[in-house]
Design goal:
binds 2-amino-4-trifluoromethylsulfanyl-butyric acid; binds cobalt (II) ion; single chain; alpha+beta; four-stranded antiparallel β-sheet; about 30% helix; Creatine Amidinohydrolase
Length: about 280
């Protein structure tokens, strides 16, 4: 389940710099999605904007055509957790929307996701999204040379469990990333620390907790993509791509490289401080 070290793609510093270019595209487009998403806008509108941005950057989509996937974003609303296909329904006040986006630059992938509240915030949804985002950052902070893979998993789970009663998906996990979007190792969002491969410089991981306001159980709709909660509870998904470097974690899909989060949490990362 956790992959083998000899199967994990190790990038040179120059290759990580190329992945940073893909990460900047992903981070910039998701910032634009935050601005554009709102009441009366459809997720197909957002998908069109994301396609324009890819063209503007001269980048390719990681998602379009992936096992036949028809769009460049995943747009998952309310009880949809991940892999929602964009559609023409106009978003309404109170919707909880997760947008997942991936881009390829010079053959290197970046992958990230955000959750957005549409219109007036609803306290329980705000908390769900905040907890999910915080758990992602706790995981990213463990992407350090010499740590073991499940130190990340454990940090994600602990952050969520300490915040209250939430469901953590188990069937869907984070992943290695580089010349392909999905590579070894799998990165679960739960489990005891100190297991799995030892993290080394040049590895890159997508860390992506998927958390619900109810139970963790999910199923896939007849479109063969959309993953929804069994109990109808609402869900949040946050994701970033991180490079493990000798100078600490470098969050490739965050526009500031993770600098602000690591600085305010006392986590040394000269890599992130470069921006
Ligand atoms: N980006 C998703 C992930 O985080 C996968 C998207 S599936 C696709 O792993 F089909 F849309 F590409
Ligand atoms: Co991913």
């Amino acid at each position: 389940m956790f992959g083998r070290k000899d199967k994990i793609e190790i990038k040179t510093p120059a290759q990580i710099d190329l992945m940073r270019k893909a990460g900047i595209v992903v981070g910039t487009v998701l910032e634009r999605m935050k601005v554009e998403a709102g009441i009366g806008v459809s997720t197909n509108d957002l998908d069109r904007i994301a396609r324009e941005e890819l063209t503007r950057f001269g980048a390719d989509s990681s998602f379009l055509g992936y096992y036949g996937y028809p769009s460049v974003i995943c747009a998952s609303t309310n009880d949809e957790v991940v892999h929602g296909i964009p559609n023409d329904r106009k978003l309404v006040d109170g919707d909880l929307l997760s947008i997942d986006f991936g881009a390829i630059v010079d053959g290197w992938h970046g992958d990230a996701a955000i959750t957005i509240e549409i219109g007036t915030p609803i306290a329980a949804q705000t908390q769900l999204s905040n907890v999910t985002r915080e758990s992602m950052w706790a995981g990213l902070a463990q992407a350090v040379v010499g740590n073991r893979l499940t130190d990340i998993s454990h940090a994600v789970e602990k952050t969520i469990r300490m915040a209250g009663e939430y469901g953590i998906l188990e069937e869907y996990v984070g992943h290695g990333i580089g010349t392909k979007m999905h590579m070894d190792p799998a990165v679960p969002n739960f489990g005891s620390p100190g297991r799995g491969v030892e993290l080394q410089a040049g590895m890159a991981l997508a860390i992506e907790p998927m958390v619900t306001l109810g139970e963790r159980h999910v199923h896939t709709l007849a479109d063969n993509w959309t993953v929804v909660t069994d109990d109808g509870s609402r869900a949040s998904h946050w994701e970033n791509t991180v490079a493990i470097t000798e100078e600490g974690p470098w969050v490739l899909t965050a526009l500031d490289g993770g600098a602000e989060y690591f600085a305010t949490h006392g986590i040394p990362s000269p890599a992130a401080a470069k921006g």
